[in-house]
Amino acid sequence: MKEINNLELLRDRAIRGVLALTSRTFLLQLVSLAATFLLTVFLQPAEYGVFFVVSAIVNFLVYFSDIGLAAALIQKPENIKEEDLKTTFTIQQILVFSIMILVFIFSKKIVLFYKLSYEGLWLFRALVISFFLSSLKTIPSIILERGLYFEKLIIPSIVETLLFYFVAVFLAWQGYGITSFTFAVLIRGVSGLLIIYLLAPWRPSFGIVGKSAKKLLSFGVPFQLNSLLALVKDDLLTAFLGKVLTFTQVGYIGWAQKWAYFPLRFFMDSINRVTFPAYSRIQNQKEILSKAIEKSIYFISFFVFPVLTGLFLIAPYFVAFFPKYQKWQPALVSLTFFCVNALFASITTTLTNALNATGRIKITLKLMLCWTILTWGLTLILIQTFGFNGVSLASAVVAVTSWITIWLTQKVVSFSFFKNIRDAFMATFIMGFVFHLTAPIFINNLIKLFVFILIHSLLYLFIFFIIGKKRFLTEIKTISLKKD
Question: Which candidate, 107, 145, 357, 392, has a CA 20 to 30 Å from the CA of 271?
Answer without folding.
Answer: 392
